[in-house]
Amino acid sequence: MKTEIHGTQQRRLSIEKSILKEIDAYSTSHQKTRHFCELIDSGQTHDYSWIVMTLIGPSLDIVRRLLNKQYSKSCVINMAVQILDAVEIMHEVGFIHRDLKPGNICTGNPPNDDHVLYVLDFGISRRIFKNNKSRELRNKRERVPFYGTRKFCNRACHMEQDQGRKDDMETYVYTILDLFHNEKGLPWSKDLTDQKKIIMKKKALFANPHKELDPMIPSSISRIINYLNGLKFQDPIDYRFIEIELKSSRSELKTSDPSDETMDWTGKLEKLLRESKKNKKAETPKGEETLMFERLTLLKKAKEMASSGQLSNEASCAKTLTSKDVDGSEGPPTGFNTTQGTNESRASNMKIEKPPKIEKKKSRSRN
Ligand SMILES: Nc1ncnc2c1ncn2[C@@H]1O[C@H](COP(=O)(O)OP(=O)(O)OP(=O)(O)O)[C@@H](O)[C@H]1O
Ligand SMILES: [Mg+2]
Asked: Residue spans with biased composition (Polar residues) (predicted)?
């Protein structure tokens, strides 16, 4: 269940609901899609809105930690092929994700579905068509507030420009590179405070991928970056080109496994999750009711403070409730509660921390 308190945040849940519904409709009318949760129910109370979707497995961030920060290269290629499939479906249905990252991609449930990756968290996704029937693309906007996560967002997002499908693909590339890099991380991930430096490094990578990419990265990634470099805002994406390039790296990596389905955690995820729970590696977050209660209590407290003049207004309440995640991403505190509760990041996502200084402009910044 994902919740959103009324009045304290941008309406992220309503777009999540639309996307899950539209993907489901597409799946019924066009081609059966995997990679997305099913929307089971939704509604609202006086204080908050909620959606219920299928409960899946842990995020790729968590699985990596469970595997002691080691994804094999062939597993990353398999993940990249599946994530590409998911992004293609989203674009086809008419949305760009705008916040792709390992924390927003989860495995299916062990034992039978954990080889399938699911893309979630559409809180800052955006419609791309003026009208779904004509499929005419919306015009490029002049200036857009920052919507994304500093570590993974594309250059357009950093520069507050409108993002299109090609920009989503840029974020896709950073996500795949992050998965390849395991412990080392992306070239800019050590210091996420200096946005200028991050932009410079991302620009350098796109200007000369062959030189900038770590030698252990398959050369297909460099060709994919070169291909994306040639695209303009409105251009469609040649997903097949990207897929062929990815699959071609299997021979470079000398992997014999031709399927996209064998993952490093195949057959061991349940055990890994059990052990991590025992060792308290992945802390179980508090129960569903407690979390929701805590959030509502916090909101109530903040509202009381606002009305007694201790906080200047409702916006301050929202700021008080801002959360921060492992990628240094910030955003309004959409709650996510599960009954399995095996996941470390869920716990850290729920942590309410003091927000950083909010800049002049209204934005759904997760920098
Ligand atoms: N359907 C689901 N089944 C299992 N786990 C989920 C599901 N949806 C989300 N999660 C877990 O909860 C975490 C947070 O969910 P999500 O990213 O949708 O929320 P969010 O508040 O928008 O996150 P953030 O703003 O931190 O990116 C995910 O990283 C994932 O581990
Ligand atoms: Mg998320």
From this structure: 335-348
| Ligand 1 atom closest to residue 53's alpha carbon, by position in its atom list | 1
The H or E element containing residue 263 is none
pLDDT of 53 reads: 98
Token readout for 76 is: 């990353």
- Mean pLDDT over 18-22 rounds to 96
Helix (H, G, I), strand (E, B) or coil at 95: strand
Q: Tell me, what's the pLDDT at 280?
A: 62
Is the CB of 337 within 6 Å of ligand 1? no
Q: How large a percentage of the chain has pLDDT more than 70?
A: 74
In angstroms, the CA 123 to CA 335 distance is 12
CA 248 to chain centre: 26
Which residue has better confidence, 328 or 303?
Answer: 303
103 lines ligand 1 (CB under 6 A): yes
Task: Give the Cα separation of 147 and 141 in Å (integer).
Answer: 14
pTM over cut 0.85: no
Burial class (CB in 10 A: 0-12, 13-18, 19+), 215: exposed
Please give the distance of CA 80 from its chain centroid, rounded to a whole number: 14
Q: Is 124 in the pocket of ligand 1 (CB under 6 A)?
A: no
Strands 126-127 and 95-96: antiparallel
Residue nearest atom 12 in ligand 1 by C-alpha distance: 346
Please indicate whether residue 270 or residue 32 has the higher confidence score (pLDDT). Answer: 270
Q: What is the pLDDT at residue 319?
A: 41
Q: How much of the chain exceeds pLDDT 90, in percent?
A: 64
Distance CA 294, CA 71 (A): 36
Q: Is the shortest distance between the CB of 365 and ligand 1 below 6 Å?
A: no
The Cα–Cα gap between 19 and 2 comes to 14
pLDDT at 281 over 60: no
Domain boundaries, the chain: 2-55+285-366, 60-275
Instruction: Kindly state the tokens that stand for 130.
Output: 């003026």
Q: What is the pLDDT of residue 7?
A: 82
